[in-house]
Design a protein that fits this description.
This protein is of the alpha/beta class. It is about 55% helix and about 10% strand. The chain has helices spanning about 10-20, 35-45, 65-70, 85-95, 110-120, 130-140, 145-165, 165-175, 180-190, 190-205, 210-220, and strands at about 1-5, 30, 50-55, 80, 100-105. A five-stranded parallel β-sheet has the order 2-1-3-4-5, sandwiched between helices. Helix 3 (about 65-70) links the parallel strand 3 and strand 4. Helix 2 packs parallel to helix 3, helix 9 crosses helix 10 (about 190-205) and helix 10 (about 190-205) packs across helix 11 (about 210-220).
Amino acid sequence: MRILIADDHRLIVEGVRLKLAELGPDVEFVEATTVDELRAAVAANGIIDLALVDLAMPGSRGHQHLHETVEAMNGAPVVVLSGSEDPAIIQELLGLGVHGFIPKAYSPDVMLGAVRLVLSGGTYIPPMMLNPQAANGASGGSDGAPAADAANVAALESQLRALLTERQMDVLRLLAHGKPNKVIARDLGISEGTVKIHLAAIFRALHVRNRLEALVASQQLRHM
């Protein structure tokens, strides 16, 4: 499997390489630090199974380099790496056809889980997008362009609601914001023991074993 990493920060590239090497011994990496190198890498390296591309890198003009990469990859997934967590940008890029958006502030383990999801045919959306206010805010532009992508988020929430109770949805949203059990309990006015019961039910409903897998599985639901 060949993975392209396009980012102008060497520490990011090395960190991504190190973590994604856990995917298996057959993983090969191709690197690019500018948009010109990105174009050349896609054109010259035959089949690339996955591209992780920085949102803003030398030579980029808006999101044109991402649009070009999606087209050039012939259906192979493109995942965006970014220091931004702007819901409007996430919605726009999903509309361009990217298969995931990973904020650089997230942990290496979350990135690895997101990449595994994408390689299995899913799309990774940051858990914060499960928050309806974030989705609604992203769809509030005057031209209504992100409306279709907001509909995807609404469809995902609908699928989750078919499996979870309203209280479990509340717990999952707070979990998506990285809140520990103690804070979830305080915010919802319930005990930590009740939070643990809800989490156990969520894990069973989504067929997962832990908090990270619950967030990743919630993204897979839209592809089932």
